[in-house]
Amino acid sequence: MAILVAERSPSRLKERLSAELRAALKAGEKTKLSALRMLTAAVKNREVELLHELSDEEFMEVAAREVKRRREAIEAYEQAGRPDRADVEREEQRAIETYLPAALSDQEVAALVEEAISATGASGPGDLGKVMGIVMGRAKGRVDGRVVQEQVRARLSG
Questions:
Q1: SS3 letters across the chain
Q2: For an engineered disulfide with 35, which of 5, 92, 112, 117 has Cβ 3.0 to 4.6 Å away?
Q3: Whole-model pTM?
């Protein structure tokens, strides 16, 4: 039994990734090259999972997950007293972040939180999940969930 794979035109971000990977290889940028190779592997794995080439939006979801992994690794390395490894992770994070849309400012996040609280009628900490769902859905990877959670908690508790 053959598995049919939906034909799609390759995403512009995927084409850009391929070009930047070649440029990093030629320029000898080892850390950037490593980060881009890991992103390429993550994209390929997701394509195999979904059985089609990723759209730009799906590509950005994969990139956002990779950036989140770098943030977690930076935190772990800093707690372990390994600033050298944390710096490498930061450099990789910067290379991958170029594939994400610009992050929302604190004011934009606050406005989204206010809208979500109004829309849900949230009144206390028990409504955190409802508000988070709306804000994260509208932000679409343009803000760290921890930042949103802090703002929602602060707003709902006082």
A1: CCCCCECCCCCHHHHHHHHHHHHHHHHCCHHHHHHHHHHHHHHHHHHHHHCECCCHHHHHHHHHHHHHHHHHHHHHHHHCCCHHHHHHHHHHHHHHHCCCCCCCCHHHHHHHHHHHHHHHCCCCHHHHHHHHHHHHHHHCCCCCHHHHHHHHHHHHHC
A2: 92
A3: 0.76
